[in-house]
Known about the structure:
single chain, alpha/beta, Rossmann fold, two-stranded parallel sheet
Amino acid sequence: MSTSNTKKTLLVTGGAGFIGSNFILYWMKHHPEDKIINLDALTYAGNLENLRSIQDSKNYIFVEGNIVDRDLVERIVADVDMIVHFAAESHVDRSILEPDAFVQTNIVGTQVLLDLAVKHKVKHFHHISTDEVFGSLELGKDTQFSETTPYDPRSPYSASKASSDHLVRAYGETYGLQYTITNCSNNYGEYQFPEKLIPLAITNILDNKAVPVYGDGLQVRDWLYVQDHCSAIEKVLESGSSQKTYVVGGLTEDIPNIEVVKTILKIMGKSEHMLEHITDRAGHDVRYSVDWSHIKKDLGWEPSVSFEVGIEQTITWYLANESWWRPLLSDNQDYFKKNYQDRT
Ligand SMILES: NC(=O)c1ccc[n+]([C@@H]2O[C@H](COP(=O)([O-])OP(=O)(O)OC[C@H]3O[C@@H](n4cnc5c(N)ncnc54)[C@H](O)[C@@H]3O)[C@@H](O)[C@H]2O)c1
């Protein structure tokens, strides 16, 4: 779609979050000629520490603000070639406790961006979405999510992301917006807020605390190393077809959550006694599995980091970066208490 090598200006929304910040670092390394405007509201999940290494770069601008703020977004969008839209409330557990922000940011915020992208004739709108919009697969079967799987979201988070996907496609059909969408699986890697399974397990183990596992822990997820996700987005931005969706994943076989935690315990030299089964999440999807053969065939992308290598790298990163994650635990104690200690 956007094949030209000329200098571009990208608006990255949610660029201070986990995947957005990894993407900005990746893009600035591989496309130093481009300019990036990072619009982020700095919610609990936004952290400018992630971007410290490029904060003074002449091709990088940070704007603190909300994607729901139409006037602000309009001032920015007027000068951009591409929007890469990561900003979202992204954690299923928080969506169960407090869904309002998910509707506001994920649905209303996306609509504001779409309106202004159409108004200002932005050349390419790329929407980052999730495989969770497809619902849940049966355990023990070899069925997989693909670009043609019908939507069946089952949590406030996935329902809000599904709504945003529908809006993006509707703006394509109705107003001719040039867009692409990626629906990817669970990401892991450096700079992930320690509320998600892998960094939660690593940081609890480092603090000699039990690792909570929902229910029997047999739920299955596909795991995508965040750097591989960034390279997939790059492929889609550079050569994806307009008005097309790509499903992105990292694995070729199922790994139950309990095995993920056992692997982390083993690498960190700890006993499985540190596992603690807690009351299952309400409406917990049991299995996600992603058929990423289409993006491989169409764009030549495939994951380059195996789970075995990616998980080692991730543990090494958290070991070396305690000063990054430690303050996040103390600043968010109320959430951790509400979500975990009250459920054991
Ligand atoms: N993390 C995953 O495993 C995963 C998997 C599939 C899809 N996704 C999608 O990828 C995107 C990024 O996920 P993530 O894990 O990096 O999320 P994150 O929660 O780490 O980061 C979200 C970022 O968006 C910002 N933000 C939130 N509300 C905003 C608003 N109203 N205006 C401006 N900025 C706002 C936050 O401050 C934060 O920096 C999301 O759209 C998410 O749905 C994530």
